[in-house]
Specification:
The protein is an alpha/beta fold. It contains nine helices and five strands. It is about 50% helix and about 15% strand.
Length: about 220
């Protein structure tokens, strides 16, 4: 029995100060074992004397939450270590990025995201139909995401073959991968629009460095 996992993360929020809202879907064929790849990452953390904190992009960059007492150098090292893991994970992804001012209501968000996800699924329909079931993992933080993804997947794929499960980034490395991809894709947009913050530039350097160090490799995993 072949199963496909979809791990979801979002950044920017429907409300707040961010100009953008991003949602990332990470796809993984569950028949491909990740144990060895993840073990190498965890071993690398030990060698470098870095804490194994479940990756969370914004707190890592800003020194908040679990990262509060860590230096910028340590946080950058942890970010790079997880990015190396991300490069070796057998995953594909798709990120949808929106300007919040163009989608002023919750229903506008739901409608647009649902349409975009349906088109993504249709574009790769042969791939998704090769699986017996599609398991969607999401922590449920944003109702609009849950509503949009559920509506899109149930419309484009067989309802009987779709399973929705709650996932916490602390429990699943692929959920953390979705978090990192969301963080990087949103940051890429900020570089394109010349809207980067001091934190972005302290963490990643100039636009050229960010592109060469992160986005060139990441783009290879886009679905």
């Amino acid at each position: 029995m072949a199963d496909c996992s979809i791990f979801i993360d979002e950044t920017g929020g429907q409300s707040g100060h961010s100009r953008y809202y991003a949602i990332t879907l990470v796809f993984h064929d569950q028949s491909i074992d990740l144990t060895g790849t993840i073990a190498k990452y965890e071993a690398a953390l030990k060698v470098r004397n870095l804490a194994d904190i479940p990756f969370h992009g914004s707190p890592c960059m800003n020194g908040h939450d679990e990262y509060e007492n860590l230096s910028l150098e340590s946080r950058k090292s942890m970010f790079v270590a997880f990015f190396v893991l991300l490069q070796h994970l057998p995953i594909r992804y798709r990120t949808f990025l929106y300007k919040r001012k163009e989608l002023p209501s919750e229903q506008a968000f739901v409608t647009r995201m649902r349409k975009d996800i349906i088109m993504c699924l249709y574009d790769e329909l042969e791939y998704f139909q090769s699986f017996d079931s599609v398991k969607i993992y999401y922590d449920g933080a944003q109702a609009i995401v849950r509503q949009s993804v559920r509506g899109a997947v149930e419309y484009a794929l067989s309802k009987s073959g779709t399973v929705f499960r709650t996932a916490s980034p602390a429990e699943y490395r692929l959920a953390q991968a979705a978090d990192m991809i969301c963080t990087l894709e949103l940051t890429a947009q900020k570089y394109r629009a010349h809207e980067t913050t001091r934190t972005d530039e302290k963490f990643f350097g100039n636009a050229g460095a960010f592109k060469n160090n992160y986005m060139k490799s990441l783009k290879r995993k886009r679905l």
